[in-house]
Amino acid sequence: MEDKKTQIIFTSTSPYYIVNGKNIMYQNESIGDLKSVIALCRCGQSKSMPYCDGYHERTGLKTEKSEERAENKWKDYTGEDITVHFNLGLCSHGQTCLHGLPDVFNINEKPWINVDKASVDEVIDAVRNCPSGALTYTKDGEYVTEFEYDEKITIVDKGPLVVKGNVELVDDRNSLDELVSKNRFTLCRCGKSKNKPFCDGGHNNKE
Fold first, then answer.
1. Contacts of 29 (CB under 8 A, 6+ apart)
2. InterPro entries recorded for this chain (predicted)?
3. What pLDDT does residue 34 have?
4. From CA 10, how far away is CA 16, in angstroms rounded?
5. Cα of 198 vs its chain's centroid, Å
6. pLDDT of residue 1
7. Are 113 and 84 in contact (CB under 8 A)?
8. What integer pLDDT is reported at residue 133 of this predicted model?
9. Residues in the chain with pLDDT < 50?
């Protein structure tokens, strides 16, 4: 009998419900003895982190996108053999690319992405490691947005919900339609993102 597909299900007034979760990590440890459904906090105020304790029912969830969010727009950075595409509107600002391949991704230079400063394979690996799907690439005329991942949901302590692999996102606003990379995305857990339900790095804002 095949395993049931993992789903993350929520509405504009609910926590994140992970259904049939198979590989969920929190603070570098696997969450064992998983129930068929677990509820995760998305307001950032639960006293039972990472789980929802119903705190949002007192104040209500603020789940609307802000007019101040970064524009959902792709920008191209073309090199000799590969073009990297970047969408600031999807970026979770986890700096995976900056730390992983600093010669190529350097916010202190213009342009901040210079794909010819590393091998094509290294650039592709950096794009693959982008957790939010804000990086994609084109090579030899083929536009590549998705990669093969083992299914994994990582609850980052004081950070987002990082999702990779065959996990279905289901909500009442069809948020999955916003993504070109359907099998890698980051969801806001602090309630501060301007691009809910997706993370925009708002958890780094100390205000």
1. none
2. CISD, Divergent_4Fe-4S_mono-cluster, FeS-contain_CDGSH-typ, MitoNEET_CISD
3. 65
4. 5
5. 6
6. 46
7. yes
8. 97
9. 1
Contact 22, 31 (CB under 8 A): no
What CATH topology corresponds to 74-144? Alpha-Beta Plaits (3.30.70)
| Beta-carbon count within 10 A of 152 CB | 15
Where are the chain's structural domains?
A: 6-65+149-204, 74-144
Query: Residue 101 and residue 106: Cα distance in Å, rounded?
Result: 9
Give the model's pLDDT for residue 180.
Answer: 96
Q: How far is CA 49 from CA 46, 118, 155, in A?
A: 6, 40, 10
Residue 88 has phi, psi (to 5 degrees) of -60, -30
pLDDT score recorded for residue 33: 59
DSSP state of 133: S
Return the structure tokens found at 116. Answer: 């010819």
In contact, 189 and 165? CB cutoff 8 Å? no
Nearest-CA neighbor of 3 among 17, 23, 29, 25?
A: 23
CA 137 to chain CA centroid, Å, is 17
Q: Which value, to the nearest 10 degrees, does the dihedral of the CA atoms of residues 73, 137, 174, 89 take?
A: -30
Q: Could you read off the pLDDT of 13-45 as tens digits, one per residue?
A: 999 999 998 899 998 888 865 678 999 999 999
